[in-house]
Design a protein that fits this description.
There is one protein chain. The chain has one domain (about 1-250): 2-enoyl-CoA Hydratase, Chain A, domain 1 (Alpha-Beta Complex), CATH 3.90.226.10. The protein is of the alpha/beta class and about 250 residues long. It has helices at about 15-30, 55-60, 65-85, 100-105, 135-150, 160-165, 175-190, 190-205, 210-230, 230-240, and strands at about 1-5, 40-45, 45-50, 90-95, 95-100, 110-115, 120, 155, 170. The strands form 2 sheets. Strands 1-2-4-6-9 form a 5-stranded parallel sheet, with helices on both faces. Strands 3-5-7-8 form a 4-stranded mixed sheet. The radius of gyration is 18 Å and the shape is globular. Strand 1, helix 1 and strand 2 (about 40-45) form a beta-alpha-beta unit.
């Protein structure tokens, strides 16, 4: 078993270009390491992942549409690598997960969350959309729940995440390791080649194989890039960074 820990606790394990690149490389190595039977993903400190890092968001405001598209595509590639890793993956959700952090949870085969964890898909409140993570989250929670949480940008607790299907189980923080060990034990009792074949079978049967996903990723990267450079996206991001309300709130 390989454990990957998002290790930026000072910023709640938020994404930046460096973290995305490191995760992509670690996933590539895990895929080709015959000693790795499964992967556990967790966060350092009290959070799982807060989504986008503030400085990374600032760079998005200043970047061109083409640069934003390339940036979004790198995130999409990493999430795709996690989702289609030919080995079982477990999200050990030790704390809050927002935005891209929710995407990481959704890309794992199994997810166990601490009872006090909170989740959110708040992109629309910045004038954006959860474009790159949307296919994975939508498959977990379904269209009906997505229409509520994607469109309102609201937050929800671990019990709601479990009821929606985003996580399979909740437990106390102190019980997380035990709960993960139970899943690991079950996987180790299964034939490794059979597990890989079954994971591929699931995607093929659901019509969500990697080839289809990569085509969708390209479209979603274009969408989020266009939103980031739009007047509304620029206002939403700038307002967030400046710690003020966006202009559209004055028009309610």
């Amino acid at each position: 078993m390989l454990t990957l820990t998002l290790d930026r606790p000072g910023v709640h394990n938020a994404f930046n270009a460096g973290l995305i690149a490191e995760l992509q490389q670690a996933l590539h190595e895990a895929e080709h390491d015959k000693q790795v039977r499964m992967l556990v993903l967790t966060g350092a400190g009290r959070s799982f992942s807060a989504g986008a890092d503030l400085q990374w968001m600032r760079s998005q405001v200043e970047a061109s549409e083409d640069d934003n598209r390339a940036d979004a595509q790198r995130l999409a590639n990493m999430l795709c690598s996690l989702n289609y890793l030919p080995k079982p993956t477990i999200a050990r959700v030790n704390g809050h997960a927002f935005g891209g952090g929710v995407g990481l949870v959704a890309c794992c085969d199994m997810a166990i969350a601490a009872e006090d964890a909170r989740f959110g898909l708040t992109e629309v409140r910045l004038g954006l959309a959860p474009a790159v993570i949307s296919p994975y989250v939508l498959r977990c929670i379904g269209e009906r729940q997505a229409r509520r949480w994607f469109l309102t940008g609201g937050r929800f607790d671990a019990a709601q995440a479990r009821n929606m299907g985003l996580v399979h189980e909740t437990c106390t923080v102190d019980s997380l390791d035990h709960a993960v060990e139970d899943l690991v034990s079950g996987i180790l009792e299964s034939g490794p080649h059979a597990v890989t074949a079954t994971k591929r079978l699931i995607f093929d049967s659901a019509g969500t194989n990697r080839q289809a996903q990569e085509a969708l990723d390209s479209d979603n990267a274009r969408l989020i890039a266009a939103l980031r450079v739009s007047a509304e996206g620029q206002e939403g991001l700038t307002a967030f960074l400046d710690k003020r309300s966006p202009a559209w709130l004055s028009r309610k």
